[in-house]
Amino acid sequence: MSIRVTIVSHAYVYEPYRKKIEELAKFEDLEVSLITPEHGVEGGNQQVIAEKHPGSDYDHRILPGVFTGRLNTFVFRDLKRTLRELNPDVILLEEEYWTNVSYQITRLVKTDFPKTKIALISQENINHIWEEEGSTWYQKLRFSVFHWMEQRILSRVDGLSFQFDSVWAEFQARIEQLGFRGLKWTVPQLGVDLETFKWYDADLLSELSSELEITPDTVVFGNIGRIIPEKGLEDALRAFAQVKNTHTKMLLVGNGSEEYVTTLQDLASSLGIQDRVIFRGAVPFDQIPTYFRVLDVFFLLSHTTPEWKEQFGRVLVETMAAKRALIGSDSGAIPGVIGEAGIIVPEKDVAAIADAMNKLADDPQLRQEYGEKGYQRAHNEFTYAAIASKTREFIQTLCT
Predict the structure, then answer these.
(1) Which strand (E) or helix (H) includes residue 354?
(2) What is the pLDDT of residue 236?
(3) Which of 28, 44, 359, 388 has the smallest number of Cβ neighbours within 10 A?
(4) CATH architecture under which domain 194-381 falls
(5) Are 192 and 186 in contact (CB under 8 A)?
(6) What are the phi and psi torsion angles at 321 (to 5°)?
Protein backbone atom coordinates (compact mmCIF):
# COMPACT_ATOMS: atom_id res chain seq x y z
CA MET A 1 0.00 0.00 0.00
CA SER A 2 1.45 3.38 -1.01
CA ILE A 3 2.02 6.30 1.37
CA ARG A 4 0.27 9.52 0.33
CA VAL A 5 2.86 12.29 0.73
CA THR A 6 2.16 16.00 0.30
CA ILE A 7 5.24 18.24 0.10
CA VAL A 8 4.73 21.88 1.11
CA SER A 9 7.44 24.41 0.32
CA HIS A 10 8.05 27.82 -1.24
CA ALA A 11 11.29 26.46 -2.73
CA TYR A 12 9.51 24.51 -5.46
CA VAL A 13 8.11 27.63 -7.06
CA TYR A 14 11.44 27.38 -8.90
CA GLU A 15 10.93 24.55 -11.39
CA PRO A 16 14.50 23.08 -11.47
CA TYR A 17 14.31 22.22 -7.76
CA ARG A 18 11.31 20.00 -8.46
CA LYS A 19 13.64 17.32 -9.78
CA LYS A 20 13.65 16.05 -6.19
CA ILE A 21 9.86 15.79 -6.31
CA GLU A 22 10.10 13.94 -9.62
CA GLU A 23 12.59 11.49 -8.09
CA LEU A 24 10.33 10.92 -5.07
CA ALA A 25 7.40 10.27 -7.39
CA LYS A 26 9.33 7.42 -9.06
CA PHE A 27 9.05 5.29 -5.91
CA GLU A 28 6.08 2.96 -6.28
CA ASP A 29 5.32 3.05 -2.55
CA LEU A 30 4.83 6.85 -2.56
CA GLU A 31 1.88 8.80 -3.97
CA VAL A 32 3.26 12.32 -4.22
CA SER A 33 1.59 15.73 -4.33
CA LEU A 34 3.08 19.22 -4.03
CA ILE A 35 1.76 22.53 -2.67
CA THR A 36 3.55 25.78 -3.52
CA PRO A 37 2.71 29.48 -3.29
CA GLU A 38 2.10 31.51 -6.44
CA HIS A 39 5.51 33.18 -6.59
CA GLY A 40 8.84 33.49 -4.83
CA VAL A 41 12.37 34.86 -5.07
CA GLU A 42 15.44 32.98 -6.28
CA GLY A 43 19.17 33.77 -6.39
CA GLY A 44 19.99 37.39 -7.16
CA ASN A 45 16.52 38.43 -5.94
CA GLN A 46 14.94 37.30 -9.20
CA GLN A 47 11.16 37.01 -9.07
CA VAL A 48 9.89 33.54 -9.97
CA ILE A 49 6.26 32.83 -10.87
CA ALA A 50 5.07 29.29 -10.13
CA GLU A 51 4.05 27.26 -13.16
CA LYS A 52 2.04 24.10 -12.67
CA HIS A 53 3.90 20.82 -13.16
CA PRO A 54 2.75 19.55 -16.57
CA GLY A 55 3.16 15.81 -15.98
CA SER A 56 1.04 13.20 -14.25
CA ASP A 57 3.70 11.74 -11.97
CA TYR A 58 2.63 14.02 -9.11
CA ASP A 59 -0.23 16.41 -8.35
CA HIS A 60 0.91 20.03 -8.13
CA ARG A 61 -1.36 22.60 -6.44
CA ILE A 62 -0.48 26.31 -6.58
CA LEU A 63 -2.30 28.13 -3.78
CA PRO A 64 -2.96 31.84 -3.28
CA GLY A 65 -1.76 33.33 -0.06
CA VAL A 66 -1.23 36.32 2.18
CA PHE A 67 2.22 37.98 2.32
CA THR A 68 3.36 35.60 -0.44
CA GLY A 69 7.11 35.92 -1.03
CA ARG A 70 7.89 36.88 2.58
CA LEU A 71 9.26 33.62 3.92
CA ASN A 72 8.73 34.16 7.64
CA THR A 73 5.23 35.58 7.37
CA PHE A 74 3.35 34.13 4.39
CA VAL A 75 0.37 31.79 4.79
CA PHE A 76 -1.83 29.92 2.31
CA ARG A 77 -5.45 30.41 1.37
CA ASP A 78 -7.60 27.35 0.53
CA LEU A 79 -5.27 25.08 2.49
CA LYS A 80 -7.92 23.11 4.38
CA ARG A 81 -9.91 22.35 1.23
CA THR A 82 -6.77 21.30 -0.63
CA LEU A 83 -5.63 18.96 2.14
CA ARG A 84 -9.08 17.40 2.27
CA GLU A 85 -8.80 16.65 -1.44
CA LEU A 86 -5.26 15.26 -1.20
CA ASN A 87 -5.85 13.39 2.08
CA PRO A 88 -2.14 12.85 2.85
CA ASP A 89 -0.73 10.28 5.25
CA VAL A 90 2.36 12.47 5.62
CA ILE A 91 2.97 16.17 5.06
CA LEU A 92 6.61 16.89 4.27
CA LEU A 93 6.92 20.50 5.41
CA GLU A 94 10.05 22.15 4.04
CA GLU A 95 9.84 25.45 5.89
CA GLU A 96 11.47 26.72 9.07
CA TYR A 97 10.05 25.80 12.45
CA TRP A 98 9.18 29.32 13.60
CA THR A 99 7.38 30.60 10.48
CA ASN A 100 3.73 31.52 9.99
CA VAL A 101 3.16 28.86 7.35
CA SER A 102 4.57 26.12 9.59
CA TYR A 103 2.30 27.26 12.41
CA GLN A 104 -0.68 27.36 10.03
CA ILE A 105 -0.06 23.82 8.78
CA THR A 106 0.76 22.18 12.11
CA ARG A 107 -2.24 23.75 13.82
CA LEU A 108 -4.60 22.82 10.98
CA VAL A 109 -3.35 19.25 10.70
CA LYS A 110 -3.53 18.48 14.40
CA THR A 111 -7.03 19.96 14.60
CA ASP A 112 -8.63 18.68 11.38
CA PHE A 113 -6.37 15.84 10.17
CA PRO A 114 -5.20 14.11 13.36
CA LYS A 115 -4.12 10.92 11.54
CA THR A 116 -1.75 12.82 9.22
CA LYS A 117 1.90 12.89 10.27
CA ILE A 118 4.11 15.94 9.78
CA ALA A 119 7.80 15.68 8.86
CA LEU A 120 9.65 19.01 8.82
CA ILE A 121 12.93 19.56 6.95
CA SER A 122 14.84 22.60 8.24
CA GLN A 123 17.82 24.38 6.69
CA GLU A 124 18.68 26.23 9.91
CA ASN A 125 22.17 25.89 11.37
CA ILE A 126 22.28 28.65 13.99
CA ASN A 127 20.90 27.60 17.35
CA HIS A 128 18.78 30.69 17.96
CA ILE A 129 17.59 31.39 21.49
CA TRP A 130 14.88 33.71 20.22
CA GLU A 131 13.57 34.70 23.64
CA GLU A 132 17.01 36.08 24.56
CA GLU A 133 17.90 37.72 21.24
CA GLY A 134 17.00 41.16 19.94
CA SER A 135 18.57 44.52 20.70
CA THR A 136 15.75 46.85 19.58
CA TRP A 137 12.10 46.83 20.63
CA TYR A 138 11.12 45.69 17.15
CA GLN A 139 13.56 42.74 17.25
CA LYS A 140 12.44 41.80 20.75
CA LEU A 141 8.81 41.73 19.61
CA ARG A 142 9.59 39.86 16.39
CA PHE A 143 11.79 37.26 18.08
CA SER A 144 9.28 36.71 20.89
CA VAL A 145 6.75 35.79 18.20
CA PHE A 146 9.26 33.36 16.65
CA HIS A 147 9.76 31.76 20.07
CA TRP A 148 6.03 31.47 20.69
CA MET A 149 5.55 29.77 17.34
CA GLU A 150 8.54 27.41 17.53
CA GLN A 151 7.25 26.01 20.83
CA ARG A 152 3.87 25.21 19.31
CA ILE A 153 5.23 23.96 15.98
CA LEU A 154 7.92 21.64 17.37
CA SER A 155 5.55 20.05 19.86
CA ARG A 156 3.24 19.12 16.95
CA VAL A 157 5.65 17.73 14.33
CA ASP A 158 6.27 13.98 14.23
CA GLY A 159 9.66 14.10 12.54
CA LEU A 160 12.37 16.74 12.17
CA SER A 161 15.38 16.74 9.86
CA PHE A 162 18.37 19.05 9.68
CA GLN A 163 20.79 18.99 6.77
CA PHE A 164 23.87 17.82 8.67
CA ASP A 165 24.60 15.69 11.73
CA SER A 166 26.69 18.54 13.15
CA VAL A 167 23.52 20.65 13.44
CA TRP A 168 21.79 17.97 15.48
CA ALA A 169 24.83 17.74 17.76
CA GLU A 170 24.46 21.45 18.56
CA PHE A 171 20.66 21.74 18.51
CA GLN A 172 19.36 18.60 20.20
CA ALA A 173 19.02 19.88 23.77
CA ARG A 174 17.34 23.10 22.61
CA ILE A 175 14.94 21.28 20.28
CA GLU A 176 13.88 18.88 23.03
CA GLN A 177 13.46 21.80 25.46
CA LEU A 178 11.03 23.32 22.96
CA GLY A 179 8.86 20.21 23.12
CA PHE A 180 9.97 18.06 20.17
CA ARG A 181 9.59 14.33 20.87
CA GLY A 182 9.55 12.89 17.35
CA LEU A 183 11.86 11.16 14.89
CA LYS A 184 15.26 12.83 14.37
CA TRP A 185 16.71 12.70 10.86
CA THR A 186 19.43 14.16 8.65
CA VAL A 187 18.97 14.92 4.95
CA PRO A 188 19.71 17.97 2.76
CA GLN A 189 16.67 19.68 1.29
CA LEU A 190 18.02 20.22 -2.23
CA GLY A 191 20.73 18.81 -4.44
CA VAL A 192 21.94 19.03 -8.00
CA ASP A 193 21.00 17.64 -11.39
CA LEU A 194 24.23 16.43 -12.97
CA GLU A 195 22.73 16.37 -16.46
CA THR A 196 21.93 20.09 -16.29
CA PHE A 197 25.58 20.94 -15.77
CA LYS A 198 26.86 18.66 -18.53
CA TRP A 199 25.07 20.86 -21.07
CA TYR A 200 26.22 24.32 -22.09
CA ASP A 201 25.56 26.81 -24.87
CA ALA A 202 28.66 26.71 -27.12
CA ASP A 203 27.74 29.98 -28.85
CA LEU A 204 27.26 31.78 -25.54
CA LEU A 205 30.53 30.35 -24.22
CA SER A 206 32.40 31.60 -27.31
CA GLU A 207 30.72 34.99 -26.98
CA LEU A 208 31.63 35.28 -23.29
CA SER A 209 35.22 34.18 -23.87
CA SER A 210 35.62 36.81 -26.58
CA GLU A 211 33.87 39.56 -24.64
CA LEU A 212 35.84 38.88 -21.44
CA GLU A 213 39.09 38.43 -23.42
CA ILE A 214 39.68 34.96 -22.05
CA THR A 215 42.47 33.06 -23.80
CA PRO A 216 43.39 29.36 -23.41
CA ASP A 217 46.01 30.19 -20.77
CA THR A 218 43.72 32.47 -18.71
CA VAL A 219 42.73 31.15 -15.27
CA VAL A 220 39.35 32.54 -14.21
CA PHE A 221 38.31 32.75 -10.56
CA GLY A 222 34.67 33.49 -9.93
CA ASN A 223 31.52 33.60 -7.87
CA ILE A 224 27.89 33.30 -8.95
CA GLY A 225 25.33 34.50 -6.41
CA ARG A 226 24.20 37.46 -4.37
CA ILE A 227 26.58 40.42 -4.25
CA ILE A 228 26.43 41.10 -0.50
CA PRO A 229 29.09 41.69 2.20
CA GLU A 230 28.43 38.33 3.91
CA LYS A 231 29.77 36.45 0.87
CA GLY A 232 33.37 37.58 1.49
CA LEU A 233 33.84 39.26 -1.89
CA GLU A 234 36.11 41.98 -0.47
CA ASP A 235 38.36 39.24 0.91
CA ALA A 236 38.41 37.65 -2.54
CA LEU A 237 39.47 40.90 -4.21
CA ARG A 238 42.25 41.55 -1.69
CA ALA A 239 43.51 37.98 -2.08
CA PHE A 240 43.29 38.13 -5.88
CA ALA A 241 45.53 41.21 -5.85
CA GLN A 242 48.23 38.94 -4.36
CA VAL A 243 48.02 36.29 -7.09
CA LYS A 244 51.37 36.22 -8.89
CA ASN A 245 50.06 34.68 -12.12
CA THR A 246 48.97 37.68 -14.19
CA HIS A 247 47.10 35.49 -16.71
CA THR A 248 44.17 35.47 -14.31
CA LYS A 249 40.78 37.13 -14.16
CA MET A 250 37.90 37.30 -11.71
CA LEU A 251 34.24 37.12 -12.71
CA LEU A 252 31.52 38.15 -10.23
CA VAL A 253 28.00 37.28 -11.39
CA GLY A 254 24.92 38.34 -9.45
CA ASN A 255 22.78 41.19 -8.20
CA GLY A 256 23.57 43.49 -5.32
CA SER A 257 22.84 47.02 -4.21
CA GLU A 258 24.30 49.68 -6.47
CA GLU A 259 26.14 51.10 -3.46
CA TYR A 260 27.85 47.82 -2.58
CA VAL A 261 28.77 46.98 -6.18
CA THR A 262 30.38 50.43 -6.40
CA THR A 263 32.27 49.70 -3.17
CA LEU A 264 33.69 46.52 -4.71
CA GLN A 265 34.58 48.28 -7.95
CA ASP A 266 36.35 51.04 -6.02
CA LEU A 267 38.26 48.43 -4.01
CA ALA A 268 39.37 46.67 -7.21
CA SER A 269 40.60 50.03 -8.56
CA SER A 270 42.51 50.82 -5.36
CA LEU A 271 44.17 47.40 -5.57
CA GLY A 272 45.15 47.94 -9.20
CA ILE A 273 43.18 44.92 -10.48
CA GLN A 274 40.18 46.70 -12.03
CA ASP A 275 41.17 45.56 -15.54
CA ARG A 276 41.03 41.89 -14.47
CA VAL A 277 37.79 41.95 -12.46
CA ILE A 278 34.50 41.66 -14.38
CA PHE A 279 31.09 42.33 -12.83
CA ARG A 280 27.95 40.84 -14.34
CA GLY A 281 24.39 41.12 -13.07
CA ALA A 282 22.33 38.02 -12.36
CA VAL A 283 21.88 35.85 -15.47
CA PRO A 284 18.96 33.63 -16.48
CA PHE A 285 18.96 30.23 -14.79
CA ASP A 286 19.51 28.33 -18.03
CA GLN A 287 22.75 30.24 -18.68
CA ILE A 288 24.41 29.35 -15.39
CA PRO A 289 25.94 26.04 -16.61
CA THR A 290 27.63 27.99 -19.43
CA TYR A 291 28.99 30.55 -16.99
CA PHE A 292 30.50 27.72 -14.96
CA ARG A 293 32.36 26.67 -18.11
CA VAL A 294 34.02 30.10 -18.15
CA LEU A 295 35.36 29.55 -14.63
CA ASP A 296 38.37 27.49 -13.57
CA VAL A 297 38.00 28.05 -9.82
CA PHE A 298 34.87 28.91 -7.86
CA PHE A 299 35.08 30.54 -4.44
CA LEU A 300 32.52 30.90 -1.66
CA LEU A 301 34.13 32.85 1.18
CA SER A 302 31.11 33.50 3.39
CA HIS A 303 31.32 35.29 6.74
CA THR A 304 29.39 34.06 9.77
CA THR A 305 27.18 36.71 11.39
CA PRO A 306 25.13 36.57 14.61
CA GLU A 307 22.00 35.85 12.53
CA TRP A 308 23.37 33.84 9.59
CA LYS A 309 26.01 31.40 8.49
CA GLU A 310 26.16 29.45 5.26
CA GLN A 311 23.41 26.84 5.47
CA PHE A 312 24.36 24.68 2.51
CA GLY A 313 25.75 26.68 -0.39
CA ARG A 314 23.86 24.97 -3.22
CA VAL A 315 26.16 26.70 -5.70
CA LEU A 316 28.94 24.50 -4.30
CA VAL A 317 27.34 21.29 -5.53
CA GLU A 318 26.59 23.00 -8.84
CA THR A 319 30.31 23.77 -9.08
CA MET A 320 31.06 20.11 -8.38
CA ALA A 321 28.64 19.04 -11.09
CA ALA A 322 30.50 21.37 -13.49
CA LYS A 323 33.84 19.79 -12.45
CA ARG A 324 35.38 23.03 -11.24
CA ALA A 325 37.84 23.45 -8.37
CA LEU A 326 36.60 25.05 -5.14
CA ILE A 327 37.86 27.42 -2.47
CA GLY A 328 35.54 27.76 0.52
CA SER A 329 35.66 29.46 3.89
CA ASP A 330 34.96 27.49 7.05
CA SER A 331 31.60 29.22 7.56
CA GLY A 332 28.69 26.98 8.47
CA ALA A 333 28.06 24.05 6.14
CA ILE A 334 30.73 24.90 3.56
CA PRO A 335 33.43 22.45 4.79
CA GLY A 336 30.85 19.66 5.13
CA VAL A 337 29.65 20.15 1.57
CA ILE A 338 33.07 20.53 -0.06
CA GLY A 339 34.78 17.66 1.77
CA GLU A 340 37.95 16.74 -0.15
CA ALA A 341 36.81 18.49 -3.32
CA GLY A 342 38.54 21.82 -2.70
CA ILE A 343 40.55 24.02 -0.37
CA ILE A 344 39.02 25.22 2.92
CA VAL A 345 40.33 28.49 4.37
CA PRO A 346 39.54 30.31 7.63
CA GLU A 347 36.91 33.03 7.34
CA LYS A 348 38.32 36.48 6.49
CA ASP A 349 41.90 35.13 6.23
CA VAL A 350 43.08 36.98 3.14
CA ALA A 351 46.58 35.48 3.28
CA ALA A 352 45.15 31.94 3.30
CA ILE A 353 42.79 32.78 0.43
CA ALA A 354 45.67 34.26 -1.59
CA ASP A 355 47.75 31.14 -0.94
CA ALA A 356 44.92 28.92 -2.17
CA MET A 357 44.42 31.09 -5.26
CA ASN A 358 48.13 30.99 -6.07
CA LYS A 359 48.24 27.20 -5.75
CA LEU A 360 45.29 26.72 -8.08
CA ALA A 361 46.36 29.41 -10.55
CA ASP A 362 49.72 27.69 -11.06
CA ASP A 363 48.61 24.04 -11.10
CA PRO A 364 46.12 22.95 -13.78
CA GLN A 365 46.47 19.33 -12.69
CA LEU A 366 45.43 20.22 -9.14
CA ARG A 367 42.42 22.09 -10.50
CA GLN A 368 41.45 19.03 -12.53
CA GLU A 369 41.89 16.69 -9.54
CA TYR A 370 39.62 18.83 -7.37
CA GLY A 371 37.10 19.03 -10.18
CA GLU A 372 36.97 15.25 -10.54
CA LYS A 373 36.73 14.72 -6.78
CA GLY A 374 33.91 17.21 -6.60
CA TYR A 375 31.98 15.57 -9.41
CA GLN A 376 32.26 12.16 -7.74
CA ARG A 377 31.16 13.63 -4.41
CA ALA A 378 28.16 15.30 -6.03
CA HIS A 379 27.27 12.04 -7.76
CA ASN A 380 27.44 10.02 -4.53
CA GLU A 381 25.93 12.47 -2.04
CA PHE A 382 24.07 15.35 -3.61
CA THR A 383 22.14 14.27 -6.70
CA TYR A 384 18.38 14.67 -6.47
CA ALA A 385 18.06 10.90 -6.74
CA ALA A 386 20.34 10.37 -3.72
CA ILE A 387 18.54 13.00 -1.64
CA ALA A 388 15.11 11.66 -2.68
CA SER A 389 16.17 8.19 -1.53
CA LYS A 390 17.16 9.50 1.91
CA THR A 391 13.94 11.52 2.10
CA ARG A 392 11.87 8.44 1.25
CA GLU A 393 13.60 6.55 4.06
CA PHE A 394 12.66 9.41 6.43
CA ILE A 395 9.01 9.11 5.36
CA GLN A 396 8.98 5.30 5.59
CA THR A 397 10.54 5.31 9.06
CA LEU A 398 8.03 7.89 10.25
CA CYS A 399 5.16 5.67 9.09
CA THR A 400 6.36 2.41 10.68
Answers:
(1) helix 350-362
(2) 98
(3) 28
(4) 3-Layer(aba) Sandwich (3.40)
(5) no
(6) -60, -30
